[in-house]
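Notes to self after the Tuesday call (sharing in case useful).
The group wants a holo model before anyone commits to mutagenesis around the pocket. I volunteered. Ligand is beta-D-glucopyranose. Logging inputs and output together so the record is complete.
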Amino acid sequence: MNQKSILLAILAPALFLTACTPKTPQLGKASVDKVIAAMTLEEKALLLVGTGMAGFSGETTVVGETKQLVPGAAGTTYAIPRLGIPAAVLADGPAGLRITPVREGDEQTYYCTAFPVATTLASTWNTELVENVGKAMGNEVLEYGADVLLAPALNIHRNPLCGRNFEYYSEDPVVSGKMAAAMTKGIQSNGVGVSLKHFAANNQETNRMGNDSRVTPRALREIYLKGFEIAVKESAPWTIMSSYNRINGTYAPENYDLQTTILRDEWGYKGTVMTDWFGGKDAPAMVRAGNDLLMPGTPKQYESIVEAVKNGTLSEAELNRNVRNILNMILATPRFKGHAFSNTPDLKAHAAVTRQSAAEGMVLLENSNNALPLSASIKNVAVYGVSSYDFISGGTGSGDVNEAYTVSLVEGLKNAGYQLDPQLQKQYEEYIASENEKNKPDPGNPFAAFMPRARPEELVPAPAALALQVKEADVALITIGRTSGEFADRAIEGDFNLTANEKEMIETVSKAFQAAGKKAIVILNIGGVIETASWKNFPDAILIAWQAGQEGGNTVADLLSGKVNPSGKLPVTFPVQYMDAASSANFPWDPAVVKSAGGNLMGKPDDGEEPVRNVDYTIYEEDIFVGYRYFDTFGKDVSYPFGYGLSYTSFEYANPVIEETHGEFVVNVDISNTGGIPGKEIVQLYVAAPRNASLPKPSKELKAFAKTKELKAGETQTLSMKVAKADLASFDNDESAWVADSGRYTILLATSSRETKQTIELTLSNPIITKTNKVLQLQAPVSVLKP
Ligand code: BGC
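Result:
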């Protein structure tokens, strides 16, 4: 039966019933239980699966797209008019609302704001700011008629090459969880919902629909689930999206232990769980696991659910539980409440939010001899690098936004009053146009539209031209750009590592300008970590602009000119080389291995084939030692540590004080601006466990952070941070319990994971042991890294 005939089959008796029984319970008027009691089995099954996606059977991975209600949204739930149940519209994604900007036969446009990507927002370490971005983003969801935004995404940056890291916040679960909670609060303050995604351990794109993440319960609990736990408890997200991958053998949406035992029983989650688009294999298993909604939904799923109830393998009670969760979500939607959306959100105001929030997320990595801010006498700039002219606002795939414009770096510089080298500009514009003509997406590849386009290789300026440019300009700006997105992971060569031309461009331009007593500044327009160690000494300054949203060029100009003092810090470590990352070997980095497994598999795996390591399954051998937990515990050199970032001013930390209350410790510290200009400082609170801890521990773990307001020169602010006693615990696999040993812990008040400014001790007098369910166990033991 196709979907239309299913609909007719249920609607005909339903219409008849409506005519005969005027008292049919209506959602919102009658209780949810009454509405459920009035639903037929078929109606329940329809509600549990979405309305489908034309042209897609569910066998391959896909980005959501519907033409119904809000064109270009990712999908809709089933409407059952006879019971007063409207559809809910679900739309991507983390950097802003993704809908189709132009509609046939309609003069109006429906552009949305491309906000800074999640990694940029995490770099602000400013939860209030992130909540404000969420407010603006959620307003577009509301005013364009959608109900749930499929965001925030908070998977851990386990490996530098994951193609979707830009959509995620950090390598640290506390940063990820706090950011996701702030974003959720902001979005949901509009009366629309979010979907925390992708739950859980979805850390690679290669074979994302089949890959089995083999992880210890400890690493799951401490690293991969922790951020979700924080966000669930602090911000009550309406929905959660389960991930595509398997965890220790079971698909995330079919995993009862994950979707019910941990999420609902242990954490107390009350909302709805939906699949990722076409995620999971066995529909009744997903229903049983507590994965309420199957998106975008297929007729096959509908049929197998009905069949499973009829043959008794799925109980009506399980069905009703999930239906109830979905109905409760629908009850809260603007569509149910009849919100008359305007289709005219204030895009100008939201562009201003974008510009200002990105400014706090950019990270100054190097600034020799105060190369930045540019001195007031600098007027003429020579601008190099393709991305200076074709700035990248965000990554690709479902996380892309259809924005009206992106301010390039050169436009931003012009807006700020700088003069560009017209010859250089012309050369780049012509080159980019001709290269883009050659690099058109392959029309035969259905994923091409959602994947990054090949970017033109960089140009190394010829000596004569360069000499002229040096003569005419006061400073050189060089942009290195990177983009990535779902369906594929990044490569080491030419992506993590710079290309030969990129390195040569940086070196040649820097040396030529420096020889003339002028500065060269590198701007990194990137979505994730790249190699920096081999070239970072060439330029005078390096600024990570990240993917900063549609106002990117204006924001960079704000920082270069000194209008804004940089205050961002890295939410992720920059290793010296790719192979230094703890997970480097246990990731599909090797193109030959991926090829041997049949390429980057886009569909669901056929059972029975010999599984290929890192493609069909990935062993998380680094265990809890992700990011700085690894680099710092094992004493590895890094190029830039976690939490690092410079300012145009300087700060001092003084008078750390700790107070113990019943369940927590409160730490206060005074931060003073000791430099000459206003600025903000981020303070990171790490905890080092007692030496005789019962479990192997990282040398330190982030437990809290805070950011000052803008402090004037000489001004001091007392920052206050809390550490719950229970948060000192690590997870004991054998006992299935959180264990916080009694003893002396050291609190490090630090400006990065490698630079502690003040320490203070705390004593936990009694151990705290919190038992959990023994779930998510490995199918076979794996040997994991230990210090
Ligand atoms: C992505 C999700 C997204 C969904 C709907 C999937 O391909 O993994 O993040 O929300 O598509 O577009």
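Two things stood out.
The mean pLDDT is 95.
The longest strand covers residues 651-660.
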